[in-house]
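User: Hey, my collaborator sent me this sequence without any context and asked if I could get a structure. I don't really work with proteins. Can you help?
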Amino acid sequence: MNDAFNNTYIAARQTKTTASDSALCTGLRNAITPSAASIASVAKM
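Assistant: No problem. I've predicted the 3D structure and written it out in C-alpha cell form, which is a compact way to encode the shape of the chain:
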C-alpha cells in the first residue's frame, strides 16, 4: 500500500494541478481511515 500511496503522491507533486491535489487528499483519507478504524476497534477491547 505504501508504494501505491507514494506513487500517487509523486504523481500529484509532479503535475501540481487542482485535480492532483484532490486525488492526493483522497489518497490521504483512504490511507488514514483504515488506521483510525483499527485504532477505534482496539480501543473498544
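In plain terms: The chain is about 90% helix and 0% strand. You can pass these C-alpha cells on to your collaborator as they are.
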